[in-house]
Queue: 2 jobs
Job 1
Amino acid sequence: MSTGTPRSLPSSGQKSLQDICHPLSAEESARSCSPDTLNTSNPGEKDRSLPNGTPVDTASPASSSSLLNRLQLDDDLDGETRDLFVTVDDPKKHVSTMETYITYRVCTKTTRTEFDFSEYSVRRRYQDFDWLRNRLEDSQPTHLIPPLPEKFVMKGVVDRFSEEFVETRRKALDKFLKRVADHPVLSFNEHFNAFLSAKDLNKRQGLALLTKMGESVKYVTGGYKLRGRPMEFAAMGEYLDIFTQKLGTIDRIAQRIIKEQSEYLMELREYSPVYTSWTSFEEDLHEPLEGVAGCVSNCTSALDELTEDMSEDFLPVLKEYVLYIESMKNVLKKRDQVQAEYETKLEAVVFREDKKTPVPTDVEKCQDRVECFNADLKADWDRWQNNKRQDFRQLLTGMANKNIQYYEKCLAAWESLIPLLQDKQEAKGETN
Amino acid sequence: MADSGSEDIAVIGNTDLTPSESENNIKNTMVEKGTNLLKRMEISVAEAEKRTGKNAVNMQETYTVYLVETRALDATSEGTTPVPDSLWRRYSEFELLKNYLLVTYPFLVVPPLPEKRAEFVWHKLSADNMDPDFVERRRVGLENFLLRVASHPALSNDKIFYSFLTEENGWKETVFETGFQAKADSRLKALNATFRVKNADKRFADMKHYGDELQSVISQLLRVRARAADRLYGVYKVHGNYGRVFSEWSAIEKEMGDGLQSAGHHMDAYAASVDDILEEEEHYADQLKEYLFYADAFRAVCRKHELTQYELEMAGQDLTSKKQQQEELATGTVRTFSLKGMTSKLFGQETPEQREAKLKMLETQIEEGEELVKERNAECEEFVKSAWVDIERFKEQKDHDLREALISYAIMQISMCKKGIQVWNNAKECFSKM
């Protein structure tokens, strides 16, 4: 299982993936989005069949517009009702004549009935994660999709196959899947299910969807100014802008601290040997000097650890959040697009017809879509805020802990030195 | 005291003294054999003051003077509360005192003065001589110098040192009257000239080597320490930026706001704490610096020993050649090729009278030479004896002091770690409440 080929073979999959259409992703889907049809399954589902005969209905909670789901979402935040656990581990390097790449093991444990088994273990490479994220973004356009670590790394600066890089990426991929798995809507997504359980991914499916997606972009690219962007979304945008700024500053500070610490480390590495060289020509002071040398070198390795922890655990989380904010901004932008579409249509109607004729259903549906989107976005926003709060609490407490540990190690080293220095002193005083 | 030029040095210090001080001085002479001055007198450099005046070339200059306070700890003056005597001294006067001691006691490891200009400091610390921190550190250093001299078994009984502590006016003239400078000049010339000792004393050669090593290792240590201090300063101060950004960030957060805001304050406190830490560490650097300069004084003793040894060897060589000449004259044989041999061959033999006169002269020269060698030998032996005693004393003092310095350094590091733990614990509490 663990050595499963990452390349997709169209016919060999346990489940073949099909396009899952979202109300916003295609024209025809607009029908299903009116408030009175909220609880019906998405139109795309009719075409969808799963080879293993899993009832199609079970996938229905994945509908982004399910009111039930949105309510569940808030309860879910504490993680008490979690029934899907995903971890990414065991990176492996694959070398073929064509390319060299890393695969990661994705382990799943679940009690959900959508899954045939309670446990899965598959191997996926970065491309597959990327595919999953694209599928999620296409099929769940009203939702905030967690970010993936950046695909491109500066060549030459970072070794893509180095242990540190792979480990940092593994952590980020793990975080990504966990965020999706904890999401009450995304975690029910068909593509996600396939990603976790299918032996081979059929990634060709869904290509057609990409072309469809291009349509709604025009409303924004046309430089359309929203008339009435609700205050709360405007506030979200502003919040994200300031938060991005602050995060950038924190990132710069953290990098600067790491730089200063590494330079301090370099000096400390010289400091201890000077004491050692001093011991070579002292008799009475031999031991005390040796003790100080040992102490300094203990503190040096403690600092080395702290610096490493900071650059491996602290910085990547900040980076993830920068990307997370980007994802959030994207969703906000898409919401604006949908609203723009609605406003344009509404304007056209108002301009054409007199006020007594009812607004065409087409426009009404458009309005529903905006409302749908707003509701999804608000739920995701709250979820995101909550995640952010937890993540930063954890991140900053972690930073404080690392520093406390560093000082405690140094403290222990120096405290153990004191009796060594003093005992000698007293012994000497007695002989005198 | 310029008018008392003809007086003996030993007496000079005693003129113009108050009765109680005279008494002290009598005691002073009494204890000359053993106990040091510190047992009888409290010495401190109480304060520093900035002054402006005209210097020798009539230029306005600003300088610092230090208040030297002394108080007799006398059993006899128990009834009357002794009022501390105080006088102002400039750094240059301390320097003069030290130079006098160096020349007068070549066989002693004379305590060093604190540095004239700040060296081995991390860049945030001002290297300005008028900087209050520097002046304060120097005040401590100068006091330490006086205490070191006053507790030295031999130096503490020096009359010039005593008058440095007790006579504000005319002290400089007194020092110059000792003529130490003339001695200093000739000695210095000899020291600068390269000379090679034939029979070097192994012990002193080893000691000199030790002095070299000590000096080099301490200066290396100080250099690395200063650089590390710079970096440590950077690490702490950059954390201060968190303070600002947390506080700005807290403005846009609801639940997290308070925690962030107060964590920011702790980060500010963390950044500020480095100033005290490094100021304290500077004390350790000063202790090391004292021994860096001590190493120099130590090497000076070894070098002066070499000089004494060299002078002895030269005197011995001179005597040997005189004796050889005498032998040649007496026997008429020329053992070695010499200019004299050449001239006698070219211009014929000397008259017996001439030879007689020459022999006589050589005889007296040999006598003198023998006397000189004896003298030099005794001098050298005396030097070795006194120097060795002082070197042993110095080594003991050094081991003790440096051990103390290391202990206080460790204590300092402990307090720094505790401060760090406390600040981060405070911050952690704020973070965990977010």
Job 2
Amino acid sequence: MEYVVGIILLLSFFGLAYYCIKGHNLMIGFLVITILWTVLPLLGTVFASASFIEANPILQYEGSKGLIKILNSIYQSAPEGWGTTLVNVCWGAWFGRVLMDTGIASTLIRKTVELGGDKPMVTIALLNIVTALIFTAMTGAGPVIAIGVIVLPILMSLGVPKAIAMFSFMGSVAAGIYLNPVNFAQYRAFFIQPDEMPDFTLGWYAAHWGYAALLIMLIATTVLAAIYLKKSKTSHAWAAQSRSGASEQRNAPIYTLILPIVPVVLKIWLDFSVIGGFVIAGFLALFLCGRMKGTFKENCQLVNKLYYDGVVDTAPLVGFLLTLPMFNSVASYASPYFKVILGGVMPKNELVVCIVFAVLLCMGLFRGPMTLVGCGAATLGVLSNVASFSVPFLYAVFAIPTITVNIGSCITQSWVAWGLAYTKVESKDFLKLSIPNAYLTGVLQYVAAFILLGGLGAAWFI
Amino acid sequence: MTKQELQKALEPIAQGLFGKQGIRRYERPHFPLRSLETMLKDLTEIPQEEWFAYVFSREPLNGKFQDDQRRRWMEQSIACGREYGRRICQEYSLSTPSELAKAMGMKVTYPTYPEKTDRVLFAEFREPDDIRIYMDGVKKAKKFLERPEISSILGKLEVSELLLAHELFHYVEEKYKKEIYTRREKIRLWSLGPLHNDSTIIALSEIAAMAFARELVKLPYAPYVMDVFLVYGYSPEEASGLYEEMMEFAGRTPCAPEERKDVE
């Protein structure tokens, strides 16, 4: 009977992959699959062989009390546990809004362009570095759009073809996200509870793989942009841009331009609280840029408005991310059945995992079965339960298709979709540039993951 | 309950379960509406030299310049555009942009290409000889020009010819890149001992292209007016925002927003 349940679960996994690729609602998709994966494994225990139940203590529960305990752990404790991550997301979004409102982000971009001048390649390289730095602290569609409306017209006015400008900008945003504390906390919660494995901090992750991942993506994107640019023809366009993007010329004092990286530096260097870093750097930015010169009431309103706008930036993902912990939890109950079906074929060796994931990187596109912000959460549920890998290694294995492929290269990413409409780049033209980058970057990052995170000791296993 | 009523009642549930992801899309900014006629009237009265602040607001290096520099560059670039306009017409003994493009061997295409964002693309030149005039905006503009109150302000205007003339300048500029003012005028961005970075100013090229186009089509006002005119076909709100910005940059007061019923 366990084989029948296993096959039905496997079919439902492919059904979920199809559902995600078609672009349907992720929150509802994962909620439905969570319910299905709760019912099938628990109902399966009634019909499964005694030896199967005996070999899997997780499926052994006593009466209705035991059943309710399992259900509570799936539908109550799991999303509650994710609450601590959500708090980081909200403060990060507020900080992103502060950097935009004070003009720090836009000043940083403009000063960078003033170094490069009319040399497109120099300017692209400098802008990629600065964009990546900015997005180590900022995240969400709002900040990407706010920076995009500055960076993209600048690149296009330098004669950079719009598809290359788009690809280069989106790639460097994704590169920065490799060190973003909010994204780190968000993805870490897919693998372990926030209070589990306290040594797996942003600082540890950055030192062991994060810096390498960021640099690989940044360098690969810039080198590919240079190659594409060399092959392409310079273009000049007559276009009109509404005042939203072009006229936000608030100049921030030079010394405040260091503030975007303060929370990340504090976190990595001193393991200082991420939220503490956001609060310190955020209020410093507001005071030093003269945004707190109003009355107490006006200042309160400004801080509140920025918080509101920031939270709205992240709102679309919150429902999905609060449903995922339920799914992550329920996956452990489904895993014994998957083991029966896939135990023999799922890769158990780190090198094989790296090779298989590198080959299948394209399945991180269109919310496919490799990206954590798509159906990849289900793949993680299956992989982590049928084989044993260290948490940092598994994190890197899934971060690559999530960040490099989905966030940096896929047209289903909300801000990439915005960029396509904004620059008038055809989806296929963008994908022609971004998919080679996804593969080049992804393969190099898997090599780095295998070398730097392979063979970690028992302390890094759950 | 009829079948249609049942379908309608179930639609929100079906959308919630199987609908597309409810990702919050980027919302474009909102501006008070103004009538096209009033905006065009105000903008056509701005002398070409007074557009410098608007033009340079789109220049990546604008933060490094002072107003007197901008004004001087504006005047010199306009002179350059006019001079090359006359020179090219004489050289080919032709005067219309489409005839000149043909004589120069340019590949001119007229794709439709609909635009609906806060950056509206009108025309493009791709090296070495490819010009695209996006006709979606041009067709919308033609409809407005059929109205007497608009044509009386803008006069006899062939928008596609104006756009073509502008893009032709970029070809001319490339051809004469060693001698043309817009490529020879440079500023030093930084220097470190023997190392330094000198850069051309992109805005100069655009200013000269506008002056060149104006010379070729004998336009009585600055072609920057087209930014508002062509954007209006896509979004009257954004055209109004752009108008406000242009007027402020020219040191003028924008006209008051009008009642909705007065606006097309």
